[in-house]
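Example for tutorial group B:
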C-alpha cells in the first residue's frame, strides 16, 4: 500500500432560487403559461484550476456556476384570432372570405435568460515575472475599476480588458483572487411563432395548414466573450450562444381522417 493515495474531487454546492408561474386559461381566446426563475448556484469546481483548489485551498476555489443564468423567463401562448365564422368578429362574412381570413390561431414560445457567468483570465504575469509553475496561474486579482465602463457592449467589445483598473496581476508567486464567474455575457431572447388553421373539408376529413417560424424576429443571440484580459481581442465575441439559431421558416400541411 505504499505510495497509494486517494483524492476525492468532490464539491459542496448550494442552490437558491425564486420561482414563479402565471397561467391564463382561454381568456377571450388567449391562453398563457409563463414561468420566471431567479437562481444562484455556489460551490467548488467552477473555475480556474479546480484540482488545486480541491486539494489545497477549498475556500479560494468557491464561486458561482457558469451553467445557469441568473434570471430566466419562458412564456408559452396560444391565441385564437377572433375573426371568422364562430368567432367574435366576421361571423357573417361570406364563405370565400372566411376560408382565406377566418379561423386562424397564433401560438408562440418566448425564451429569455440573462447572460451566463464567466471568469477573466491571464496569459502571464508580465514583466514582473514570478508566475507560479502550478495551480491557478491564470487568475487575475480584482481591481477597483468597472470592466464594462467605456466598453462598446457588443460583439466587438463586450467588456474592456487590459491590466490596471478592473484586472490586476497578482504579486509574484501568488494566485489571484478575482471572484469566479462574476462577469456576465449577453442575454438570450428568442421568439418562436406558429400560425395555423384547420379547414373542415367534410365530417370526416380536415386539413391543417401551418407555418412555423423559429427565431421569428431574427434576433442574434451572441455567445460568451474572449475572457483573456491580456489579449488584443479581449471582450470580443465570435460565435452564437448554445442553442441559438437564426430565423428559419417551415410550411406544412396535415390531412386528418
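The residue assignment follows.
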Amino acid at each position: 500500500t505504499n505510495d497509494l493515495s486517494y483524492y476525492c474531487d468532490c464539491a459542496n454546492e448550494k442552490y437558491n432560487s425564486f420561482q414563479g408561474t402565471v397561467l391564463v386559461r382561454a381568456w377571450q381566446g388567449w391562453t398563457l403559461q409563463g414561468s420566471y426563475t431567479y437562481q444562484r448556484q455556489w460551490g467548488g469546481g467552477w473555475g480556474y484550476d479546480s484540482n488545486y483548489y480541491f486539494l489545497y485551498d477549498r475556500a479560494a476555489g468557491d464561486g458561482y456556476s457558469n451553467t445557469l443564468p441568473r434570471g430566466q423567463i419562458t412564456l408559452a401562448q396560444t391565441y385564437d384570432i377572433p375573426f371568422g365564422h364562430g368567432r367574435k368578429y366576421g361571423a357573417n362574412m361570406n364563405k370565400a372570405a372566411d376560408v382565406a381570413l377566418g379561423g386562424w390561431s397564433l401560438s408562440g414560445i418566448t425564451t429569455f435568460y440573462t447572460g451566463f457567468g464567466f471568469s477573466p483570465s491571464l496569459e502571464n504575469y508580465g514583466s514582473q515575472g514570478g508566475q507560479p509553475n502550478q495551480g491557478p496561474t491564470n487568475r487575475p486579482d480584482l481591481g477597483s475599476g468597472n470592466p464594462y465602463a467605456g466598453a462598446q457592449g457588443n460583439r466587438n467589445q463586450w467588456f474592456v480588458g487590459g491590466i490596471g483598473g478592473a484586472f490586476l496581476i497578482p504579486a509574484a508567486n501568488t494566485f489571484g483572487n478575482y471572484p469566479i464567474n462574476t462577469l456576465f455575457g449577453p442575454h438570450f431572447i428568442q421568439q418562436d411563432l406558429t400560425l395555423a388553421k384547420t379547414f373542415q373539408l367534410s365530417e370526416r376529413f380536415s386539413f391543417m395548414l401551418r407555418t412555423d417560424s423559429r427565431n421569428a424576429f431574427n434576433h442574434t443571440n451572441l455567445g460568451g466573450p474572449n475572457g483573456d484580459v491580456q489579449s488584443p481581442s479581449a471582450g470580443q465575441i465570435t460565435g452564437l450562444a448554445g442553442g441559438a439559431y437564426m430565423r428559419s421558416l417551415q410550411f406544412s400541411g396535415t390531412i386528418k381522417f
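The chain has a mean pLDDT of 92. Compare this with the pattern of hydrophobic and polar residues in the output above.
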